[in-house]
Design brief:
- It is a single chain.
- Helix content is 44%, strand content 20%.
- By secondary structure, the protein is of the alpha/beta class.
- An eight-stranded mixed β-sheet has the order 3-2-1-4-7-6-8-5, with helices on both faces.
- Helix 9 packs antiparallel against helix 10.
Amino acid sequence: MIKISIIIPILNEEKNIISLLEHLEQHSSKNNSFELLIVDGGSTDGSISKIENYIKNHHHIALISSERGRAKQMNRGRLQANGAILYFLHADSYPPKNFDQYLIDEVKKGNLAGCFKMKFNHPHWWLKIASWFTQFNWSACRGGDQSQYITATLFDEIGGFNEDYIIYEDQILIKELYKRNQFTVIQKWIYTSARLYEQKGIWTLQYHFWAIYIKKWLGADATALYRYYSRHIAS
């Protein structure tokens, strides 16, 4: 039996994390073995107490402490993972029914890495168009909210997530996978929150995401990308 390690990096996800854990329990196929590794980057809200209370009756779930930064947190999760398949998932993204079986089926077919196509939980027409494009296997249509599965062997061969990148770490890994012609898009929907678009404004946030993409394309390094993100998105 192929085991899956679901790795979820979190930071102050008190409002979302339990609903996600319940969703994963309810939407797994029940025929497969998986573990849940929640990697906390220093939450200061009620996330930790909620998780600790939840996992008392769920022994396949572990809470791990890490330095802050999604790349560091996900790499930390991998160190404790026992699965042959690693599944990196954001705390506000909800995979489809039988997601675990879809991952196993793809790996058995030789597709060693990939994601699901994605829909935002928001009715705005632009977000609907952006969601529609995620069905295509183009690197420009990729993002961490679509989740990322990869075999542990391939992940280790690549060297994991590049911890120099505080943001954009998912794109660095995805770029490497496309170089190797080893990426597939599973044609099932994962649903993700549009909360950052709601907070910042859809067109404002989209502009800044495009700016970061172009800056990287023009050769900006990790420090420059994070500086821009901190000034325009995180602030």
